[in-house]
TrEMBL record:
<feature type="domain" description="FAD dependent oxidoreductase">
    <location>
        <begin position="3"/>
        <end position="403"/>
    </location>
</feature>
<keyword id="KW-0285">Flavoprotein</keyword>
<feature type="binding site">
    <location>
        <begin position="3"/>
        <end position="17"/>
    </location>
    <ligand>
        <name>FAD</name>
    </ligand>
</feature>
<dbReference type="InterPro" id="IPR006076">
    <property type="entry name" value="FAD-dep_OxRdtase"/>
</dbReference>
<keyword id="KW-0274">FAD</keyword>
<dbReference type="Pfam" id="PF01266">
    <property type="entry name" value="DAO"/>
</dbReference>
<protein>
    <recommendedName>
        <fullName>D-amino acid dehydrogenase</fullName>
        <ecNumber>1.4.99.-</ecNumber>
    </recommendedName>
</protein>
<dbReference type="InterPro" id="IPR036188">
    <property type="entry name" value="FAD/NAD-bd_sf"/>
</dbReference>
<keyword id="KW-0560">Oxidoreductase</keyword>
<comment type="function">
    <text>Oxidative deamination of D-amino acids.</text>
</comment>
<comment type="similarity">
    <text>Belongs to the DadA oxidoreductase family.</text>
</comment>
<dbReference type="InterPro" id="IPR023080">
    <property type="entry name" value="DadA"/>
</dbReference>
Length: 421
């Protein structure tokens, strides 16, 4: 069967790869001139299996209130007269209830563990390189209260088979010597040795190349304008090329991997996807002094900022802003990240050459992605990965390929759509 994958971000390209491996004939459509040029372009680089807890958790409303009105807030709500934004914000609040947080965390944890296994297998199979480091992630806490609270999560991680341990500040510095300058400020850390980091864009572009060699056809510079339905199934997608010419592409099945932009396209089909863009920023800087720049991937849990070494570059990313589809770079938001870099690792990088970037995380309120069949028999979803699209890419895509092949994916307790668990 011919399958058309809509979108060539990390989710679409991994989907195309695993579908081709499963024996489908695959084509991919994207409006950009290449793969991974939107949200998958310059993210935080973390394969963060040890952080399955969603932003929607019992502590989130308090955090949002604490930072209310501050332009450098890690979580920022810019209200619009847009019912979708308010609907999503209310649903987010509902997902902050303890039992919902527990359920969402468990679903993401089991998918994340599976995804880590699939990523390692893919690397062994293809030899793909993307500035990856297998040095773990160190989560940093700068107040004793935050550190104490974080330690209560260790049994949950262990129950999911995720290795992590609490470390005092000296051990944090032993794991990552570049932290020596902040030793006295650190309350402690959680170290997850099996986590990884790497450049999602390089990975996606390299995998797209391998997929093309394996027979996957990529239609770049092709904007999807609508999805057409006849007698209860999708019969084609309307497209427009770079020259403005309109046309249609057809296949036996279609997989939606359009990030934040899929909801509007499926709404006329009666499908409501609870995905809203959550804007984030990253800064990429060349490393000047290797000894001063960290190579273990870090998460500053107090500021919600992550930092990954990508070869001779350092990528620092974070902040979450509910601001519609606005992709303008807001200087105060980037400055908060640059200030963090200056304070934590002075002299490590060439800040004058910082590359600023912003992207829209395709987020569901509980950060659980939508994977499985839609209400239409030949339209499938692999989308809504929010803060963890790079972490979950290989497991989500291979699970979707399993489902489309009629098999149950080996991910216990994940709520695949329109599939019995
Ligand atoms: C600041 C930031 C930091 C992050 N850090 C991490 C991290 O450390 N670890 C992690 O796991 N995740 C991280 N993420 C999340 C991760 O980047 C996303 O979840 C992931 O990139 C989403 O991938 P995607 O393929 O679903 O979407 P996208 O990469 O956005 O791909 C969607 C594709 O669809 C195409 N498209 C959209 N509309 C149309 C249309 N009408 N016609 C044709 N093509 C269209 C786009 O061109 C795009 O290529 C971060 C995100 C941000 C913003």
């Amino acid at each position: 069967m011919h399958v058309l994958v809509l979108g060539a971000g990390v989710t679409g390209v991994t989907t195309a790869w695993y579908l081709a491996k499963a024996g489908f004939q695959v084509s991919v459509v994207d409006r950009q001139p290449g793969a991974a040029l939107e949200t998958s372009h310059a993210n935080g680089g973390q394969i963060s299996i040890s952080h399955p807890e969603p932003w929607a958790n019992p502590g989130a409303p308090r955090t949002a209130l604490r930072w209310l009105g501050r332009e450098d807030a890690p979580l920022l709500f810019r209200p619009h007269a847009d019912p979708a934004q308010w609907r999503w914000a209310l649903a987010f609040l509902r997902e902050c209830l303890p039992q919902r947080t527990r359920r969402n965390t468990a679903a993401v944890a089991s998918l994340a563990v599976h995804s880590g296994e699939r990523l390692r297998a893919l690397r062994a199979e293809t030899g793909i390189t993307y500035d990856q480091l297998e040095r773990g992630i160190l989560h940093l806490f700068f107040t004793p209260a935050e550190f104490d609270h974080a330690r209560t999560k260790l049994p949950m991680l262990e129950a999911h088979g995720i290795r992590a341990r609490a470390c005092g500040s000296d051990e944090c510095v032993a794991i990552e010597p570049a932290l020596a300058g902040v030793r006295d400020e650190l309350a402690g850390g959680l170290y997850a040795p099996d986590d990884e980091s790497g450049d999602a864009c390089r990975f996606t572009q390299a995998l797209a190349e391998l997929a093309a060699q394996a027979g996957v056809h990529f239609h770049y510079n092709t904007t999807i304008t609508n999805i057409s339905r006849t007698r209860g199934i999708v019969d084609s997608i309307g497209v427009r090329d770079a020259a403005g010419r309109s046309g249609a592409l057809t296949a036996g099945a279609y997989v939606m991997c359009l990030g934040s932009y899929g909801s509007a396209l499926v709404a006329p089909l009666g499908e409501r996807l609870p995905i809203y863009p959550v804007k984030g920023y990253s800064v990429t800087v060349p490393v000047l002094d290797r000894a001063l720049a960290p190579s273990v991937s870090l998460t500053d849990e107090s500021r919600r900022i992550v930092c990954s070494r990508l070869g001779e570059r350092l990528r620092i990313a974070g902040t979450a802003e509910l601001n519609g589809f606005n992709t303008a770079i807001h200087p105060a938001r980037c400055q908060a990240i640059l200030d963090w870099l200056n304070a934590r690792f002075p002299g490590a990088t060439d800040i004058a050459q910082a590359q600023l970037w912003t992207g829209l995380r395709p987020a569901t309120p509980g950060n659980v992605p939508l994977i499985g069949r839609s209400g239409l028999p030949n339209l499938w979803y692999n989308t809504g990965h929010g803060t963890l699209g790079w972490t979950l890419a290989c497991g989500s895509a291979s699970s979707l390929a399993d489902l489309m092949s009629g098999h149950r994916p080996p991910v216990r307790g994940f709520p695949f759509l329109h599939c019995d668990d």
